[in-house]
Amino acid sequence: MVRLRDELQAAVGFLTRIPIGRGVADRPGAAAFGLVGTVVAVIAAVPFLALAGLAQEPVLAAVAAVAVMVVLSGAMHLDGLADTADALLASDVASAERARKDPAVGPGGLAAVVLALAAEVGALASIGSADVALGAWTMVAAGGFSRAVPVILVRSGRIEAHQGGLGSWFVRNVTSGDATIAGITAGGLVAALALATNPLNARAALLGGAIGFATGWFLAARRGGVDGDSLGAAVELTFVAILVAVAIVAP
Fold this sequence. Notes:
By secondary structure, this protein is mostly helical. It has helices spanning 4-15, 33-54, 58-73, 76-88, 93-101, 107-130, 132-154, 165-173, 176-196, 199-223, 228-249.
């Protein structure tokens, strides 16, 4: 039986560049994905609160917070987004695989990363301008919810994986129990957002999460199965969607 400590270590090793070890080497620690994403976002919320609250600089606060998220995650989800965007723009299946595996970022991947980061900074700055605490709570909810999405996604139906590679390994090692815990974590984060702010913000966050999840399904269908890059893209796009949705409804 896998201990909670091992699961957490595996998730931290998989999702971040924090050097605490991998725990159980043959598991991704999927049950703890939402929790680890939440912790990463809490760390990123510290400079956000300092700059947006004390210095009254919401734009710089948003840049700093997003930068911390990127550094702690090793930009792995942005890398997945870039590779997936390049693959989607390819003319055929073979070209898509070559584009996805090419270490050089193509124009589609570059545009996707720039737009995603711009949306994250813009949405977070917009929220922080109106309510600093709401910005921090939203980022925490988005950080945890988005990391739970790939776990729920691969156990939500007939999701196939490309043969070989990280995506195939991930699908094989995620259990229904992992997905249940990830779903509870995501739901708990939305509930916490409702209690800390108001139900409208929570509904917006839930809508953003649903959009991110649906995007993950679309990528799986369009690409003929999930791979590590498309799962990373789903994480990043879910994070973007939640921030943008809350920014739209925030006062």
